[in-house]
Amino acid sequence: MKAKRLLAAMTVSGATAGVALVVLRRRLGPLRLDRGRAALRLFIRGGARYAGSAPRLFAAAGEQRQQLREDLALQTAEDVAGTLGAMKGVMMKIGQMASYVDDGLTPAVRNTLSRLQDSVPPMSPRLAAGVVEEELGAPPERAFARWDPQPIAAASIGQVHRAVTLDGRAVAVKVQYPGIAETIAADLRNVALLRRMLRIAAPAQDADALITELRDRVLEELDYRREARNQHLMAAYFDGHPTICVPRVIGALSTRRVLTTELSSGARFAELAGWPQEERDLAAETIYRFVFRSLYEVRAFNGDPHPGNYLFRSGGRVTFLDFGLVKHFTPAELQPLMQMNRKLCVEHDPEAFRRSLESAGFLRPHAPLSTDAIIEHLAVFYDTIREPGPLAITSDYASSVVRRFFDLRSPVAEYISVPKSYVILQRINLGLFAVLGQLSATANWRAISEEIWPFTQAPASTSMGEAEAAWRARRHPIAA
Amino acid sequence: MAYLLDPPGLDDEIAGFWHDVRDAAIVVLPEWAREMYGYAPQVLGRSRRTEIRQSLGVLDAMFLTEPGVLEARQAITLRMRTARSA
């Protein structure tokens, strides 16, 4: 009896002690910066606009194929559920989001989430082909003129294959894991567990707001038709832009679980480190123009400004990928943002700026704070545009923005909140500046902003601005 | 055993995980062990089983990223596949 008692106790204590160790380890540890590794696994590389070079592009886009564990490939939908079910798919999405939240996660948690992404093997060629056949009504070898059965990149809930359409276009085909939508949707319903996870992993954050964003985002991403609509909108707007390229969607070959777009090529973000600073500055300028032109003219914001979603070519040409998370704004929602920029940066009217903050819901009305204290607290978010002149966005600056964002100790913090409509714009502070900081990009951001702000519409301030103005005059004569 | 399964002083979040681990641990105990410690046989409903599976999935993911664990699992998967195909 004694031995049995001991055995039972050991069994239970082994399991629980192990759990305790892991959980407690994740709770401890200093905060530090470590972003983007997993993000670089996303999507394709590729080249110029593909017309007329499909075979060459088809081959080139696979040259740098990443090492995906094909020997471990998921063979069945049950394998997918076993690998990504029981919260693992959800945790991977949290990991993706975490790449924007530098100071919000402990390094141990960040490492766990990043490594989790690396742990997912690709689908077997047969399994991926099955999804394509279910979605397009024909096996890939018939739906396309050429089909590469081996994926060229992993996406978070799927993988990317290259192909050539029946009319000869080189394309990237994103194929979703079978059954993943149902699995993840079921896991997202366990709000209590999500809250528990986030309170442990990111104690400095508002868990409920994160859960809301996580659920909204992930559920959107499970349906590729939404991404196709977003990408089509952006591709149509930026068509012919001198430096911004958005691959066109092939609508006839896109469904809920298959997304077919033009194949693109270019250098990945990590390769930019070896490029001259002048080229990096140009790339940064293009990214900046893309973000704010989208916001103010398309009234849409791509909430995924992370390094894996860009492909770079010389002269500042950037291809933008992955439109799974795009927030659309109404004119009424954009108005307060413009008002705040205008009052603080152009008219230098702090009291009016404060009133704008209050009316938009960013600042509690009649907060017992001096306007100077509020400006001092928020100034870091406007440092790049308050005064004209060249300014380098460094990693230190990006980190200071993030630190201020999560600074709950400031007396101002308790009166500040981010209304739900603008939550996604946090990515400007937590994502865009992080990317520009990694590029150590220098530009006259204020002058570029004045070109873009609808209430200034200043003339071009750079050679890229001149090329863009010419494009706008051709493409959007009324707006220009 | 009770001290192990219902440890005092846990904060809310960890206590939540622990509760799921506790239920899972008791369910897998052999009947003689449950009787010995005075735990009633548990019949967990489908939704509760799902909740527990999800909690254990989170913990499993954490173990998965411990050094060598992922590689060991991959090796096991490959061996099982080889054995099945042989």
* Main beta-sheet annotation of chain B: none
Rg calculated over all Cα atoms of chain A: 24 Å
Strand segment count of chain A: 12
DSSP summary, beta strand count of chain B: 0
**Number of discrete helical segments of chain B:** 5
Q: How far apart are the first and last residues' alpha carbons of chain A, in Å? A: 87 Å
Characterize the overall form of chain B. Answer: extended
- Assembly state: heterodimer
Number of domains in the coordinates of chain A?
Answer: 2
Strand content of chain A: 5-15%
Low-confidence stretches of chain B: none
Contiguous helical run count of chain A: 19
The average pLDDT score of chain A comes to: 80
Gap between N and C termini of chain B: 44 Å
> How does the overall form of chain A come out from the CA principal axes?
globular
**What is the helix/strand order of chain B?**
HHHHH
Q: What amount of the residues of chain B lies in strands?
A: under 5%
Tally of distinct domains of chain B: 1
Largest interface: A-B, 41 and 38 residues
What does this protein look like?
The complex is a heterodimer of chains A (480) and B (86). Chain A folds into 2 domains: 38-260, no CATH class; 331-443, no CATH class. Chain A has 19 helices and 12 strands. Chain A has helices spanning 2-27, 54-63, 77-84, 88-98, 107-118, 125-136, 140-143, 180-188, 191-201, 207-221, 224-237, 277-298, 331-346, 350-360, 371-382, 395-405, 426-438, 445-452, 463-475, and strands spanning 146-147, 153-155, 158-164, 170-176, 244-245, 258-262, 300-302, 310-313, 317-320, 326-328, 391-393, 441-443. In chain A, the strands form 4 sheets. In chain A, strands 1, 2, 3, 4 and 6 form a 5-stranded antiparallel sheet that branches. Chain A has a 3-stranded mixed sheet with strand order 5-9-8, covered by helices on one side. In chain A, strands 7-10 form a two-stranded antiparallel ribbon. In chain A, strand 8 (310-313) and strand 9 (317-320) form a beta hairpin. In chain A, helix 12 runs antiparallel to helix 17 (426-438). In chain B, helix 2 crosses helix 4. In chain B, 74% of the residues lie in helices and 0% in strands. Chain B is an all-alpha fold and 86 residues long. Chain B is extended. Chain B has helices spanning 2-5, 12-28, 31-37, 46-64, 69-85. The A-B interface holds A 1, 4-5, 7-9, 11-13, 15-16, 18-20, 22-24, 26, 69, 71-72, 85-88, 91, 111-112, 115-116, 118-119, 186-187, 190, 192-193, 196-197, 199-200 and B 1, 4-5, 12-14, 16-18, 21-22, 25, 29-30, 32-33, 36-37, 50-51, 53-66, 70, 74, 77-78.
